[in-house]
Amino acid sequence: MTEVKSFTTSFVVDAGPDAVFAAICNPRAWWSGEHEGVPGKLGDVFAYRYHDMHYSRQEVTEFVPGKRVVWLVLESQLNFIEDKNEWTGTAITFELESRAGKTEVKFTHVGLKPAVECYDTCSDAWTALIQGSLREYIETGKTDMLELDAL
């Protein structure tokens, strides 16, 4: 039996892994909403809120500059689905790999699988956020900060 994979998306940018890592660790620049705290080192805890629709609190559980960062969702309240705590216990991961002077960014929301209620809405929002705002921020140093109703 094949295990259902968690949501993943990736892209390649013309930037070094250290610059990409620094951009990822500055979510205020690419993830619209209110932020409390900064995911700047191992053990940091930060919170994110988008209007009255989304609240989540994350802890940085892996922090390998230029390579990998993981945010464990400690608490969540997603007011647009029945199971409002669906993200609690999931992990938001960014893995970086150098490829011929460029950097591949692989984003995975571990635990966000097709069987969960938020999957369709959240995977669409993550795709727009990661492929849009984060990528734009890495490439240009600025972003239009997409207004995403789910995330």
What are the SSEs and their pairings?
Elements: E1 7-13, H1 17-24, E2 34-36, E3 45-50, E4 54-64, E5 68-78, E6 91-99, E7 102-110, H2 119-140
Antiparallel strand pairs: 1-7, 2-3, 3-4, 4-5, 5-6, 6-7
Name its key features:
alpha+beta, 151 residues, Alpha-D-Glucose-1,6-Bisphosphate, Chain A, domain 4, 7-stranded antiparallel β-sheet, globular
Main sheet summary: 7 strands, antiparallel
Low-confidence segments: none
Q: End-to-end distance, in Å? A: 32 Å
Strand order of the largest sheet: 1-7-6-5-4-3-2
Number of helices: 2
Structure class? alpha+beta
Write down the domain tally: 1
Output the radius of gyration: 15 Å
Helix content: 10-25%
Number of strands: 7
CATH H-level homologous superfamily name: START domain
Mean pLDDT score: 92
Series of secondary-structure elements, N-terminal to C-terminal: EHEEEEEEH
CATH class: Alpha Beta
CATH architecture descriptor name: 2-Layer Sandwich
| CATH fold descriptor | Alpha-D-Glucose-1,6-Bisphosphate, Chain A, domain 4
Percent of residues in β-strands: 35-45%
Envelope shape: globular
